[in-house]
Amino acid sequence: MPYTPTEANFILFETALDGKDVYTALLKQGVIIRPMGGKRLRVTIGLPGENKRFVDELEKVVKA
Predict the structure, then answer these.
(1) Sign for the pseudo-dihedral over CA of 55, 15, 38, 25
(2) Of 14, 23, 35, 45, which has the fewest CB atoms closer than 10 Å, so is most exposed?
(3) Per-residue b or e along 30-59, where b marks 16 or more CB atoms closer than 10 Å to that residue's CB
(4) pLDDT tens over the chain, length 64 residues
């Protein structure tokens, strides 16, 4: 997935799906991200376990 290089504590990236749909699906799983309009999403960088959980849940949403 394309992303914007950053030096902050978050990553801005795009998905093939609508950002609000991804946000809603992840929120139902207890993973909070921020839709940034269109297909763009903002994710705060967390601890290794939190990052893994986010990636695992995102993969489920994208494959659904």
Answers:
(1) negative
(2) 45
(3) ebebebeeebbbbbeeeeeeeeeebeebbe
(4) 788 888 889 999 999 999 999 999 999 999 999 999 999 999 999 999 999 999 999 999 999 8
Got the DSSP string for the chain?
--EE--SSSEEEEE-SS-HHHHHHHHHHTT---EE-STTEEEEE---HHHHHHHHHHHHHHHH-
Question: Is there a contact between 21 and 32 (Cβ–Cβ < 8 Å)?
Answer: no
Q: What are 54's two structure tokens?
A: 């986010």
Structure tokens at 45: 């960088």
**Which tokens hold the place of 32?**
């909070």
